[in-house]
Specification:
five-stranded mixed sheet, alpha/beta, single chain, 4 helices, globular, four-stranded antiparallel sheet, 9 strands
């Protein structure tokens, strides 16, 4: 690690936590994020006096942003939170983000809502943990905007967990947005065809859903990749 990059990045949720119950993953992610935000405060400048960016060997530039390839295989960059420059990391390689379709209207819908439910089908034991991680990755970004965000299921789990609400696209309305994570043959981020208050993130696998969640997170932070 060079002196040109911050010592700490707000990291993605550890995949080793994927076996935890959904509620624990969601809470752990939010607590971890808020702690990391405090730890990660960084006032350094990566721009020289002539305005040219000085990049170390482990860095590259895309869409006007400098990204660092970190030792754990994630990709760190800076985002502006008010007047503070805060480092944050993603699993998705931003150079590959352009391969994930991102449809108009998604950002406006999320950023102008009052309440978000991030929901998925819990009855997939092989992928359930990664679905929860994808949801938590989104929640760490929406929390920056102080949008009330709650984890949900699209249907009851087996056994039923009474602490987790059941929310589908049909439950989205003015002021309440549902972000539904689901499996499909192709990866995309778009608006549900039957309810334009619902965002649908689709991908063939849990890992690719996490990447799609990162693409959404980057764009919510203004990183247009």
């Amino acid at each position: 690690m060079t002196d040109d990059q911050p010592k700490e990045f707000i990291k993605p949720l550890d995949l080793e936590k994927k076996k935890s119950p959904w509620t624990k993953i969601f809470v752990v992610a939010l607590v971890f994020f808020m702690v990391a935000w405090v730890v990660a405060g960084f006032s350094g400048d990566i721009f020289g006096g002539n305005g040219q960016q000085k990049l170390p060997k482990n860095a590259f530039q895309i869409s006007g942003y400098a990204f660092y390839t970190l030792d754990d295989g994630t990709y760190g960059t800076y985002t502006a939170i008010g007047s503070q420059k805060v480092p944050i990391a993603f699993r998705l390689d931003p150079r590959q983000a352009g391969n994930i379709p991102f449809f108009d209207g998604v950002l406006d819908l999320i950023l102008n809502t009052q309440k978000i439910y991030i929901s998925f089908d819990p009855n997939n034991p092989q992928e359930r943990g990664k679905l929860a991680v994808a949801a938590a990755e989104i929640s760490r970004i929406t929390s920056l905007y102080k949008i009330d965000t709650t984890g949900a299921f699209t249907q009851d789990s087996n056994p039923i967990n009474p602490d987790i609400p059941i929310k589908k696209c049909s439950d989205a309305n003015a002021g309440v947005t549902v972000i539904e994570l689901k499996f499909a043959s192709k990866t995309s981020i778009g608006i549900d065809a039957s309810n334009n208050r619902c965002v649908v993130i689709s991908a063939p696998t849990g890992d690719e859903l996490i990447f799609a969640a990162d693409k959404l997170g980057m764009n919510l932070l203004g990183i247009r990749v």
